[in-house]
C-alpha cells in the first residue's frame, strides 16, 4: 500500500483538473472581497470545509453550486493570473509534472475582460507558475483547455474558435462541461466539427451524471478523443461485478480503441456515481483493460490531491507502483501535446522515477 508521501515524490499527470475548482481558500476570500461578492464565511479554513461539505451531496447539480463563489474570485486579469500561477505551484508541490487546466472563459467576463484577454491572463499565470516551480526545483509543464458550458440556451462555436486562435499559445484543447443530464454533447456538434476539420484536440464530459448513451454521442457522433469521467460505461457491461463480465458493443469499442477515461474517484463519490470507493467502477474497469487515467476534477471541492487519490486507490484496490505507473504513463500519452513531447516525459522522467522508486522499495 502506497502512502500519500510516497506518491507525492513520484511524477504524476493531471488531465482533468478545473481551474475554478482548485483555488486556495485564502485566494477566494481575498478576491471576493475585492469584487464585493459575499461568501458563506471569510475564514479560509472554514471556507475550505464549506466547499467540501457542500459538494459532498450525491448530486452533480448541487456539486456545481459552489462554483458561483470560485468564479466570482476570477474576474480580473490580475485575479486570473494569480489563480493560474497558484494552480501550477500547487500541482508541482504534489509532484505533478504535466497539467492541463480546464476552465470556461465565458464565466470570467463580469469585470470587462474579453474572452481573449481572459485566455491571455491564464496563459501568463501558467507561465509564471512554471518559472517559479522550475526555480524551486520542481519542473512542470502546464497548459490550458478552454471549456464551453453545455447548458447555455443557444450553443455557439465561439469557444471552439478561441481554442483554435490560441492553439499555439498555451491552449491545447477544448471541452464542454456543466450539467450533463438533459444537455447532450451533440448540442455542440458544430464546434466539434469545426475542431475536427482543423485537426484540434478535444475531450468531452460524459458518463458521469448520464449513462452510456451520452458517452456514445460524445465518441461516435462528436469524435471525442478522451472522455471526462466515463465510468458509467460499466452500464454497458453485463455481470460487471461478477466472474464473467460481457461487454456490450459500445463498451467493447471504448476498450478496443483504448479511448482514455479521465476518472475522478473522490468527485464521483460526491456526485453519487458510486456509493463507496470499493464499489467505484474504476478498479474493475482497469482490470478489464480499459484505458483508465486518474485525476482530481476539483481539488478544492473534493478536498483532495492527485497523490491522495492514488493513495485511496492503493488502499482500496491494492494498487502498487506498477498500477500507478501504468495509469500515469497512460495519462501522459493521452495528453494534448505532440507525440515527441509526451514520449520525452514518459521515457525521460516518468519511467525512470518509478524504476528508482521500485528499486529503493526492494532495497
From TrEMBL:
Cofactor: Zn(2+)
Coiled-coil boundaries: none
EC code: 3.5.4.4
Listed transmembrane segments: none
Adenosine deaminase domain boundaries: 11-350
Name of one Pfam family that matches: A_deaminase
Protein name: adenosine deaminase
Record key words, sorted: Hydrolase, Metal-binding, Nucleotide metabolism, Zinc
Similarity annotation: Belongs to the metallo-dependent hydrolases superfamily. Adenosine and AMP deaminases family.
Gene Ontology MF annotations: adenosine deaminase activity; metal ion binding
GO terms of biological process kind: adenosine catabolic process; hypoxanthine salvage; inosine biosynthetic process; nucleotide metabolic process
GO (cellular component) term, any one: cytosol
